[in-house]
Amino acid sequence: MNAHRSRRHFLRTGTALIALPMFESLGFRRFASAAPAPVAAARPKRMVFLGFGWGVTEQSWFPDVAQKGADYTLPSGLAPLARHKSDFTIVQGLVNKDVSGGHSGSTFWLTGANEFGEPGQSFHNTISVDQVAADTLGKETRFDSLILDCGAAANASGHGQGLSLSWDARGKPMSGPKTPVEAFHRLFAQDSTPIEAQKTMLRQRRSVLDNARESARELQRQLGKTDNAKLDEYFQGIRDIETRLSRDERWLGAPRPAPGLAEPQSSLAGYEEIELMYDIMIAALRTDSTRVLSYRQPVSTLLTSLDVRIDAHTMSHYLGKGPEYLEASEKRDRAQSELLAGFLDKLKATAEPDGSSLFDHTTVVYGSNIRTGHNLDSCPTLLAGRGAGLRLGHNLVVSKDTPLCNAWLTLLRGSGVAVERHGDSSGTIPLLLA
Amino acid sequence: MPTRVTLRLIYVSLLLFAAGVPAARAAETPAGAMTERHRVFLETNCLGCHGPEKQKGKFRVDELPLAMADLPTAERWQKILNALNSGEMPPEDETQPAPEAKANFLDDLSHAMVAARQRLGDQKGVIALRRLNRREYANTLRDLLGVHVDVSALPADTGGPNFDTVGANLFVNGNQFEIYEALAHEALEEAFNAATAAPTAKKFRHETEKTHPTFLKRNRDSLDAVDRANRWIKAVDDAAALPENAALVAKLREIAATDDALRYHWQKIPGAPSAKTFGFNAEAEANPAIIYRTRDRTEFVRYDEYYLQLPALDRGTYLTMPGGYGGTGFTADQGLAIPKDFAPGDYVVRICAGAAPGAPAERRYLEFGLKGFAGAGPGTPALSTHHLTGTIEAPDVIKIPFTFTRQSAERNHRNLFIRERGVLDGDRIQQQIRAAIARNGHGPDVAIWIDWIEIERVPVSPETMAPGLRALDLPLVAQAEDIPPAKLRGAFAQFAQEAFRGVPATDASLDRLVRLYDSRRASGGTHRDALKQALAAVLSSPRFLYRAEPEAGTARRSLDGLELATRLSYFLWGSPPDHTLRDLAAAGKLRQPEILATEADRLLDHPRSVHFVRPFLGQWLTLDRLDLFQFNRKLYPKFDDSVKSAARQEVYETFAALLRDNGRLGELLGADHVVINALLADYYGIPGVTGDAFRKVPLPAGSPRGGLLGMAAVMAMGSNGQHTNPVERGAWVLRKLLHEPPPPAPANVPELARLGAQLLTARERLHLHQQEPQCANCHRKIDPIGFGLENFDAVGQWRTTDTYQARDEAGKPLPNAQKTWTIDAGGALHKGPAFRDYFELRSIIAARQENFARGFASALIEYALGRPCGFSDEPLIASIVAQAGTKSFATRDFIHALIRSKEFSSK
Questions:
Q1: Complex-level ipTM
Q2: Domain formed by A45-190+258-432, architecture
Q3: Mutating which of B68, B89, B173 best tests the A interface, going by the most A Cβ atoms within 10 A?
Q4: Contact status, residue A177 vs residue A183, Cβ threshold 8 Å
Q5: Per-residue model confidence as pLDDT tens digits over A356-385
Q6: Which residues of chain B lie closer than 8 angstroms to A122, CB-CB?
């Protein structure tokens, strides 16, 4: 391996130096057969989770609860989605009842956990629904899931604690690419290292990981129980990388797919950044690089890119303030709806080998744990896609205090993920299903 | 300028994740428990439906224990809190509790809930294994290898409810191991390069007048073009004015009303010349609009004429205003391209500059920086701002240390820039230019003259070689003779011990390193590749990344010397212990109290203590809020990026001065001096301060400055960049100064309707908070303090009036609907003393310095020990405050008392 070159890869991607040149591919040729054979039968299910932190504008985003069903008036905040009206559903009344923090739009959104649920700990969380899905849906793809984030912009965007929307099986925060550039490289960076050299590198990677594990074991023997619980994260980190190495080994020689879009520019922020992330997500699905995606979207930089000078938190408390705050909040809603509409357009326009579209096999979840201001009841929830057998085109109002996790459970089962429960779920919601 | 006071209803800015630990609430409510008095409230208002008889929703209040001793009980109380806050209970058709009683109940319950959550989550002094956080990791690599690496690929570790030192929140996940490994390779590569580079001197000076020939040519061309345009226009007009053309022109006038329009038809007018004969091209000939545009640039002409008559152009240049403003615009940022053969490393940049004659005081500042992707424009913040005290005849030489990183070099970011302060970080430039033209006819006068800029490499000598490399003592080149295994192993041992902060590596781990090295060599890697591979393994191993404190059995034990040295140096330096500390530890001396205290003083006196002051203060006082929003530069032109940065620096420097002099902590609540530099002195209107260094400056009597409340940074973060935010300020004072933090913002409190069109003063607006008990229970404490600070505007300047402009639904100002009032800062603390104005409020707060001291002590405990400060720490807090109090809360004594404590020196 050419060390200099790999460093450049690292610098450009901001992710792992070793990872990229090592696992990335070789070009097409005869090695393509080494990849797992494409499944000819039913198209696989996909799930996409998009979280937008600071909620929405109460009076112009939610459809009238009196207009239940398919015949409802689209509110102005959702107007840019008009062309998809029969292809998405708004669900009202869902709640994460154990969440009490008015500034955490994403920390527990997909987990439903109780922050205080563990005695002797000041913070507690559990696995997020996307990771539950990834366990089943992620087996055959190069990446079991792709976790996308917006980096530093997340702090002022109402997401709360965490490194992304995703939390692992032990309730620890997970991280992933924070910019379109990183995401692009993670998925599509090409490498022309000969396959034998790649095998050698994989062997070396293993020995490096073995060494790290051995070093951790030496330390483990000296530490007490609490410290070892912490050190376990290090072991888990090594295990995760090993799992990925095994996956990479299976994919050795399979070329990275052509992304179908140009390498992103580095300086995008806000509206264009989200748009580009969406494009990369489409590309990830189209190339079947992964089947589960989560994206913690920026709000603060979105506002800046819309030329709104009000900070995101103040904007989220538009009530009782001047009209410019309400205007900012509604502008944000429309921009987010526009972006989502574009994403749905592309899902519909992307053909699957059997002639159907990506939209037919994907479930898109779009929302936040925060409704508006500090309100956590009736979390804004928009569901789209035909992947989970959902009833689309409806304004659904569920009975009061229905756990958000019931919706997640319904989507999981609908996507072929056989689980008993998720978070604080008490069952599925038949109303959501067609 | 219209200022609208934002009406923040309920709970607006009680940042949920505000750092800090609530005090145990005094008096009536024991921590995490309600009292019999509260039971009466429940019996009166809830028992009818939620008692033994009805048990609606399977919820009974009569069986509910008062003490929230376990999670299920806490959850049931949380339900009550939620139901009351959302207004769900009691139901609308039932008798409602009296507002005051409800507010009091909510007040107590929300605080009891915070206390219970804390008590139930108390780690009881257990410190979770601490990973180096991102900044400690960067500092550690820098100390070990002498290089700066960009660690932004790692999680920031900040932004949570605790300090970034708290072990429980420091995770390792996903590909983080690989990032550590990649950064280790990166750092080693850079360190090896630096160590093997020839120690030749590098120096380059740019004389700014060298840009003049290019500039002058452009300038002359521009003047010439205007002249040619005017001459062509005159020639056409002359032809049109000829008597024999009168009829023709009259006919043309029917379709071309103006002179400019008429000249489009020059070809039809006998005697009118082609523009080509005046040096214009065919395009301009066909489209005279191009010529008109040239003609209309007379402002540029005037500016250029002005610029060219300035003195000393043969020796230097002037910084001008940017913004597409004529030929001179390109001297808006002067600069220097770092020559290609200058390698990454430490440099010093010198700028020889002076103020132009008559330059006003506030414009005698220049900004220095490195151009990134966004050029020198708004996307590129300055690295530093400098005060010019010299003149053209006697210029200053400003000396700036500068680190040229590998990342910059690889991205080819080599252009250093200097520009006038504030000209590129706001949107007031066009405004200023127009105003200047109206005033003097040519545009903004120049303020800064630059003679030259130079950059020089800081020489690297064997003495300054980084300890990690010195410990290694191996060739660092690709091709090396075979190294005897014993030497290799010895080198690894030395390096690992250095990296592990003095703890030797195990034999087994050294064997593994040698194997890693050998296997890399065997697969064709060079000596250098294999060496980096092995050392990167050290730098991504848990011994390096975690500050391990092994445990013997279950009993608490004292730290050994090295562990203590490590704890001390990461506390006060954010960096690993140096050799002095390690030697004392090895000699068994560090655990002697007097030596430990001497060492603490040595660390605090060292420049590296900035790695304590900044992260500690920044997180404790939540200074990151300053970066949450953009300040409106149209409303506040003086609060530019340079001032914002200096304002933040004032907080650090003030605290650093207290630490240096062991001053009274209470000076942060009120002082007769400020610690400022020239830039801030200008901002505060304090005369007689020059230069960039922060120093103590006495205040005149009656000044609102002095102490945190008088600092621009503190007041600015209590705004949203446009308007003041009395709620944010009030809550901040309760949290940080009075140590009585309001509970987190409750969810689901109904928001009040919009009041945009009503003409009310800020106080009237906020008063609405107090009508609903759900709001009043916190806001009756927060709002009076916030209002007491209303004399500070959104950027911390003193004001006496405020204005509100009512607007319609569309956001348009309503006619005759503006209200201006004199600010009345008077009020009273909830159940506390009254104050007539800001000064009295400040005195009341300053008198409660013991609360402040307790808050400071809790913050120090959490920061230093790397775990939340809980109820079990009450005795420690009390002891620290008592020890510091014996010397009137001397700032350094807090740190000494904490370091002396058993908690600091035990596992």
A1: 0.79
A2: 3-Layer(aba) Sandwich (3.40)
A3: B173
A4: yes
A5: 999 999 999 999 999 988 889 899 999 999
A6: 117-118, 121, 123, 161-162, 168, 868
